[in-house]
Amino acid sequence: MKKYQVAGIGNAIVDVLTRAEDSFLDNMGIEKGIMQLIERERAELLYGAMEGRVQAPGGSVANTLAGLGNLGLRTAFVGRVKDDGLGRFYAEEMEKIGTAFVNPPAPGGELPTSRSMIFVSPDGERSMNTYLGISAELGPDDVDEAVAAEAEVVFLEGYLFDKDKGKDAFAKMARACRKAGGKAGIAISDPFCVERHRADFLDFIENELDYVIGNEAEIRALFQKDDLEADLEAVAAICPLVVCTRSGQGCTILRDGTRTDVPVEHITPVDATGAGDQFAAGFLYGLVTGAEMFRAGEMGHAAAREVIGHMGPRPETSLPDLFRDKGLV
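Given the sequence above, the corresponding structure tokens read:
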């Protein structure tokens, strides 16, 4: 038995959430509904303007690992934080949810721990203003091949693909996992990141990965055929397992040439933060435990539905109980 069922590698970001009216966003020059990268000075200004802040360890893959830990899987996280207040908070919170935080907080005069200021509108839309700090400096030296080899599944975060050392870290992690008989895959994370690095993304998916998860815009960004069906087929031709989340339309899964469409009941979110991350948690739980693809898709939807029902990107209820109530396990 391997030490970890899922090991993730990604940005270690402290999420700072608050509710905000559209007028506040306008006044602060915040573009609604998107993720913007900001500099340190802007980060401090926005942090100071937030009222009733809720602080939680975030980052896309880390949120997924929190969901998997809630489901009882053995997990590990590879990421960088500074040895500062936010960094120690992050490492401690990850350990509290049962995820091994395998890289100790970095001491010295490096960049501060990353943070994302998230303003949640009354309609549930989230406007994210992210200061990347130290996490964006993650590279191959941060990857312990023994951790990757001890994982049944490795899960990568597309956001880190923007830097060459991030790509190198991914390759090192994926290869060590697959060499030891595990499976490696990626959450695409951002269509704009794909557009910046399309050739590298496609080469990586085809030659280093066993699965890819993305929403409609992310999947379509890979081949740009201007037709979702054609784009899905193109990705499936280079990767054995492709999962496309389609918001209110459910999800489409292509595994070894077999297509599975999983419908979903459409609801209005309280806060859409973390919906994709928790879908990935539910789906990967199904993958690791050997569920049929339709059932794995249902698990993804159930986990995503739980998280959009409240503020914050991580589950607040027992996902095993939820899965049992829905007859999924």
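The CA atoms of residues 60 and 277 lie 6 Å apart. Try to locate this feature in the token string yourself.
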